Prior knowledge:
Blueprint: H1 3-6, H2 11-20, H3 27-38, E1 43-46, H4 53-64, E2 74-77, H5 81-94, E3 103-106, H6 112-120, E4 125-128, H7 130-138, E5 149-152, H8 155-160, H9 164-172, E6 179-184, H10 189-198, E7 203-206, E8 217-223, H11 229-239, E9 245-248, H12 252-264, E10 269-272, H13 278-289, E11 295-298, H14 300-303, E12 313-316, H15 325-330, E13 340-346, H16 352-361, E14 365-368, H17 373-390, H18 401-408, H19 413-433, H20 443-449, E15 460-465, H21 475-486, E16 494-498, E17 503-508, H22 512-519, E18 523-524, E19 527-528, E20 531-533, H23 547-552, H24 565-573, H25 584-592, H26 611-614, H27 644-650
Parallel strand pairs: 1-6, 1-7, 2-4, 2-5, 3-4, 5-6, 8-13, 8-14, 9-11, 9-12, 10-11, 12-13
Antiparallel strand pairs: 15-17, 15-20, 16-17, 18-19
Helix pairs in contact: 3-4, 4-5, 7-9, 17-19
Amino acid sequence: MNKFEQLGLNESLLLAIKDLGFENPSEVQEKAIPVLLEKNTDLVALAQTGTGKTAAFGFPLIQKIDAEDRSTQALILSPTRELCLQITNEIKQYSKYVKGINTVAVYGGASITEQARDIKRGAQIIVATPGRMQDMINRGLVNIKNINFCILDEADEMLNMGFYEDIVSILSDTPDEKNTWLFSATMPAEVARIAKKFMHDPAEVTVGSKNSGSATVSHEFYCVNARDRYEALKRLADANPDIFSVVFCRTKRDTQAVAEKLIEDGYSAAALHGDLSQAQRDGVMKSFRGRQIQMLVATDVAARGIDVDNITHVVNYQLPDEIETYNHRSGRTGRAGKLGTSIVIITKSELRKISSIERIIQQKFEEKTIPSGIEICEIQLLHLANKIKDTEVDHEIDNYLPAINEVLDGLTKEELIKKMVSVEFNRFINYYKKKRDLSGEKGERSERSSEPREIRAGDPVRYFVNIGSRDDFDWMQLKDFLKETLDLGRDDVFKVDVKEGFSFFNTDGEHTDKVMSVLNGFDLNGRRINVEISKNDGGSRERRDHNGRSGGGFGGGRSGGGFRGDRNSGDRSSAPRSGSFGPRTDRNERSSAPRREGGFSSDRPAREGGFKSAAPRREPGSSQRESAPRRSEGSSDRPASRSFDDAKTRRPRRS
Length: 655
Ligand code: ADP
Ligand code: MG
């Protein structure tokens, strides 16, 4: 008898479980399923994301549904459309051997009449987001007055998202005798309140300690200069060639900017944030699931409900404003018993936050240093060698062998290997050869402290910064941006004066170090912020002559300013084609190469969700750039890359 059988599940479920490839129940399943099968009881189950909660309620629910009766018997509420669809899909798989069970998803952004029609046809199980469900009830399109089961999935997230009222109202529309099963990763006060109000003597299942992080996730932080944040991210990606990750930023603006930079630099990345349309977000998620995207750059809000398995790394490009949010972020990896890593890229001034997070997750962070160029080269080289070793040879290539042999005639095996590896590797080595190491560098601080200035706490300091109305800032927006970026209070930034290509602002002298270290080199949509202490006091702002800088904005007139000079500009303008791997020639050759006709693509089906249609474009009015990888080489008209490994190394990389 297998373990699922021991839990009391029936034959049709066992068959479906076998198809799914589940071998053993997860802990929450082991604890919840027997209780739910044996008793008609309410239940509160606390378990981290990725522990298999869907099946923990899905299996017993399906077993308890009367498939002969076509009326609505169960309502599952879940926070997002994404999750809603996912749960629906799972339930359908679980119930595939049970004749007559219908599950319908109900969520915003799609036709309400069609959803109502699907329900009318007879749906025993409705999976809904609270907002849309409330809508349907108001319009009399659904009847949940006789349901036997109500499941609140990810209750904490639903309440986080402000669905309290909707949930209360929906639950009031259901019969008292039903059973309510509440699943949640954490148990904040609001969840407890719902439980108390709507549940009778619930059974309790807890996996792991309440509110603590998943045990399968390890936590690391990398301390870097603020200006190196992005470079650090790139190196972490380069040092993990198989990375499949969600990169969290704090704002939509940063999310978009980081994604665009990554794409520009040749990584397979995409942005996910609230300024994208639903269709765009769906496209991005589909590509991410299909692993055409290795680095999904997301805001916390947009990433809610991302339940993608096998994410190797969660990267906190910036820490969240609310430390509690860290837990939700890191829970995106280490799912289903797999190991995952949650990485924090942090600056010195934020270091104290690490111990606050450690207290919340009840786990320790490991401090790591960003790998050096040499280390990265070694990793990539071995990765490449392994890839060559594991590459399956398509024997269509045999036809071309004589010609190839002729070209390569006379090379020894050793020479051949060196050359082959170098094809992909040279640019990479060249890039890192010129790069300094990022971690452990204290240069920036000492450099700055040698600058002649006397700044005391208590004195206002005025700054010149090279962003202005041209960057879509008015004074309020700039003030907000500064407060947020510098993590300062309401009144800490003052006398903000925005010009076209530059601006001025004041802070107290006590914040000067922070202003200089965080802001200098800060990457704003691909522009590097430059801030200097103005000799002006802010009273007569216009006096200072900024011609050199204000006119040319960034590119040109950045020679002044002493300490930050060469390193910045050097990095940017001479930045070699970084990733180098699958370098640009790759793209060029590929696109000019004969396609299909070659014959070898015929037995390599193009990947699902071909990028052309899936690639989201930004809404009109925002920047022209696409926010998804530009697979202009098209997955459909070239030999498809099937593993995401392929996807990455074939991508053109530029810096
Ligand atoms: P949660 O709702 O707790 O975040 P899910 O129910 O989404 O987790 O499950 C996470 C992943 O684990 C899914 O891909 C699911 O198919 C898989 N999974 C669930 N139960 C098992 C199991 N017993 N064995 C193997 N994989 C499982
Ligand atoms: Mg879930």
